[in-house]
Amino acid sequence: MDNNTYSPDDYQIVRRVIAGDVNAFEHLMKKYQRLVLGVVKKHVPFDEIEDTVQDVFLRTYRSLPAFKGNNFSHWLSVIAVRTCYDFWREHYKSRELAMSSLTEQHQVWVEAALSEKSSQSFHEAGMKKEAREILDWALDKLSAEDRMVLELVYLEGHSVKEAASLLGWSTANVKVRLFRSRRKLHWLFTGATKHGRSDL
Amino acid sequence: MKVSRDEMQRLTELLRQAYWGKERCEVGTQWQSSVMAVIRQMGPVRSTPPFLSTFEHLVWRLAPATSLLTLGLAALLASMDVVFEYDLFQLFLNAIEESTLAHIFGV
Q: What is the ipTM of this complex?
């Protein structure tokens, strides 16, 4: 996830903050805001990024006494991932039950993506707006837990063990959720094609 | 319509590209200042964790023992003559009630 390992400077700054030098926290914030942004922007909608990054730093500040001094960047990444997970849990609790379905245009996109005829030009088009919308649509159909596991392992390429460490879950739990979410994703795209189930 | 493994892999690869291709996002100095303002308002961080949180790591370790103790107590209660004691308790309560009412109404 990051190249930063143990940094004695970080530990010293943390000690200073705990000793009452609140302003010293700004050094940590400046140093790691890119790392936190990198984590958060992948998991939450664009318009929620700033607030979520702020939540991450506030949580970090409150948890500083619990930092044991071995790899601040990893510790911060864990807080960032768990804050994103909490964001989705809250979001799913308050959202309307009626969920949008794919438009005709999206269905055509999925069929073209599945088709073997999809050429290099289509792969370039993978960056298109439709792809992102379809991905958001599919992720929105999953639970907050399945969504986080799918994003971390399937889309970001973390190992099951890394994802378990970031989320604070057991590897068995991550494996089960991964299997379930992949199966649901497969089922969603099977139904999303024009000739598939119409209840999507 | 059935989606084969290869087709699904192709689609996943495109979605992975879309996932990584999210727009760049930066936060400005104004954002940093506002976060620091909130942190300053919160005041110095507590260096000692709250009393209860020091026992958090014991919760799962003690869970099996607690479950066994609960089962044991349940078995013990089931084997005892609880109904008799309940009747005694009820009798005791009624006695208090009657004497109190008797005093109030001066009977």
A: 0.70
